[in-house]
């Protein structure tokens, strides 16, 4: 008697579970759930309630495996379709961001929110303008951009995420090339950004498979201390975080500051203690800077540079500059340079541009 009561209870539970799957199949528009023996159509077509099926006609295998698989398959198909649609929409957006990056164009404008087609008289930025122009030849993209809602993948947050992902892809390719070269030099120099934060610029110099010398930038590393030990740890941790194999580190290139070039507590000494093959070489650009700085103390060179600086100050006024421009325009010589440049007070190497422009405009300076 007890066994019959338990069997009856299990039967009612199984029948109730079957009805739940039956209703769920109707909601998800799945194939009708019937037993292999039940092939008769429903008598009452107007009723929305599933026809009661005797428990003896229910196939346990279909009930436990087929129904969940069908539900999962339908959900997976709809999800796959939505993923393809989102990817199709993202491709032109990513292309526009990459185009702006390659051409060094700023993405943002006066308005970065709302529909692209609501603000025709406002500068919406290069990214939104290029995307809108591309939408004129792509009906699918245009329909996405014009539809109601916010999920269009063009907000500044999505732009920053795409830029970050592009940076990760580029960094991964650079790291693979560095590791494939099996020999590289680390280049680093600290600087302060506009928000007064000390940053360490991390670069690598290596020879690729085509025997070409490359100098590629990895990333900026914020630093809290400028001691040799902390800077050395920041450099090594930065290389490892990028995925660079430091066992291939054979050279170091820094400036001549004591915290960088010191043979006891400097960065090069700290790094070489861990990687003995990493020999230190003084930065060639800084060496040239020192050579030019020393040569500038020679009297003829100092007087020449002083005259160039005084002429720049003289022609920096609007009236004198207009006279110089009129002399350049009235001449038959094709001159690309139109104005004189000021001598850089800190970077002596950059004074070359000022001297070069002065030599090219020398005859017009005399005429003016």
Explain what the structure shows.
With 368 residues, this protein is α/β, with parallel strands linked by helices. The model is unreliable at 26-30 and 32-67 (pLDDT under 50). The protein is built from 13 helices and five strands. 54% of the residues lie in helices and 11% in strands.
Radius of gyration: 36 Å
Assess the beta-strand content as a share of residues: 5-15%
- CA-CA gap between termini: 121 Å
Spans where pLDDT lies below 50 across 5 or more residues:
26-30, 32-67
- Major sheet details: 5 strands, mixed
What is the chain-wise order of helices and strands?
Answer: HHHHHEEEHEHHEHHHHH
User: Which strand order spans the largest sheet, edge to edge or round the barrel?
Assistant: 3-2-1-4-5
Overall strand count: 5
What is the helical fraction, as a range of percent? 40-55%
Quaternary status? single chain
The outline comes out as flat
Number of helices: 13
Structural class: alpha/beta
On the 0 to 100 scale, the average pLDDT is 79
Topology diagram in text:
Elements: H1 2-27, H2 60-102, H3 126-135, H4 139-146, H5 156-181, E1 184-192, E2 198-207, E3 213-222, H6 228-242, E4 249-254, H7 258-261, H8 267-274, E5 279-282, H9 284-295, H10 299-314, H11 318-330, H12 351-360, H13 362-367
Parallel strand pairs: 1-4, 4-5
Antiparallel strand pairs: 1-2, 2-3
Helix pairs in contact: 1-2, 2-3, 6-8
